[in-house]
Design a protein that fits this description.
about 325 residues; 7 helices
Length: about 325
């Protein structure tokens, strides 16, 4: 598939632009829905793509189509992108560690408990509000709710995040993420003892049909691959190094839960799991959960190539307190 191309640059007043995607023979995208295809190729959220389609801003061969249209070889898909609307989000002085920043991008440390971007129930007090205060401008890709967000972390997950400050950098980083050229490593503690020291989980993830607020490992989901390595074996839990090959919502948490070993302190996929051990093991597990006090999942490693300079950048983040203190206690008591 040819990359999205702009065939209208817009005028000096900030008019929108038109993008063109041409599908050639043998590209194997015939089974992809249009909204999924455009979300990936334009680095936009699915919700934003659906909105563009509903507004008649997406045509195939000059004809307006629906989001469920399945692209075919020979299609010329034109997308009209309206001029970016200046974000109305207010900068907020929320503490966030800035590990690196230049004109194109930034690497930040998100604390646990901080929502990444505004959503229903969280109109402010988010990482985006904090970034507007500490960094100023962010890329307009992602719309007025998710400016600059290249990838996300769950609210209860801490650690390293990559954000874009310019649209060109955002597009390049999103493409690198799709090509799996951005390394994202995590440290997690999982309940119980896993059978292998190193293993990979390759299970699709989709919305849980019984609870749309949860995700689940299910055949009807999207491909999801996670690599695990045991770092330490504790009394009733294990410390794991985790590497993502894909980036689905709650991926690490869902994959570990699907194995019967949810993340320690997971309020969605493993609530009260520690009570199932019983006896001394149960008391130990309850003490670990209490000491951690939160989801035991931390984005500890991030490495990528700078989209403008080509420089190889790598960042590491140690376990924050109280996770570090909980790990020390678990190590000493096991």
């Amino acid at each position: 598939m040819s990359p999205p191309e702009s065939d209208a640059q817009g005028d000096a007043k900030g008019a929108g632009e038109r993008r063109l995607i041409e599908i050639r023979e043998g590209e194997g995208v015939a089974l992809d829905r249009l909204d999924r295809l455009l979300a990936e190729r334009l680095s936009l959220s699915r919700a934003r793509v659906v909105q563009l389609i509903a507004e008649g801003r997406v045509t195939v061969g000059g004809q307006v189509v629906r989001k469920r249209y399945r692209p075919r070889a020979g299609d010329r898909i034109e997308i009209e992108l309206p001029a970016p609307v200046s974000t109305r989000l207010e900068p907020e002085d929320i503490p966030v560690g800035i590990r690196y920043a230049d004109d194109d991008l930034a690497v930040v440390e998100k604390p646990a408990g901080l929502v990444v971007h505004p959503a229903p129930g969280h109109p402010g007090g988010t990482l985006v509000n904090a970034l507007l205060f500490h960094l100023g401008g962010l890329s307009s890709i992602g719309g007025d709710r998710r400016p600059g967000i290249v990838h996300r972390l769950d609210k209860d997950t801490s650690g390293l995040m990559l954000v874009a400050r310019r649209d060109e950098a955002h597009r390049a980083l999103s493409a690198a993420l799709r090509r799996r050229e951005i390394e994202r490593g995590y440290v997690a503690a999982a309940w119980g003892h896993l059978d292998e020291e190193r293993f990979t989980v390759d299970r699709p993830i989709g919305r849980d049909p019984r609870d749309r607020k949860r995700m689940a490992a299910r055949e009807a989901g999207r491909p999801a691959v996670t690599h695990f390595k045991r770092l330490e074996r504790w009394n009733a839990a294990e410390l794991l190094a985790v590497r993502l090959a894909t980036g689905r919502t709650h991926q690490i948490r869902v994959h570990l839960q699907s194995l019967g070993h949810p993340v320690v302190g997971d309020p969605i996929y493993g609530p009260d799991w520690e009570r199932g051990f019983g006896g001394a093991g149960g008391r130990w597990a309850e003490a670990l959960r209490r000491r951690a006090g939160r989801l035991f999942l931390h984005a500890a490693h991030l490495a990528f190539e700078h989209p403008e300079t080509g420089e190889a950048l790598s960042f590491a983040s140690p376990l924050p307190s109280p996770l570090q203190e909980a790990a020390e206690w678990a190590r000493a008591s096991s």
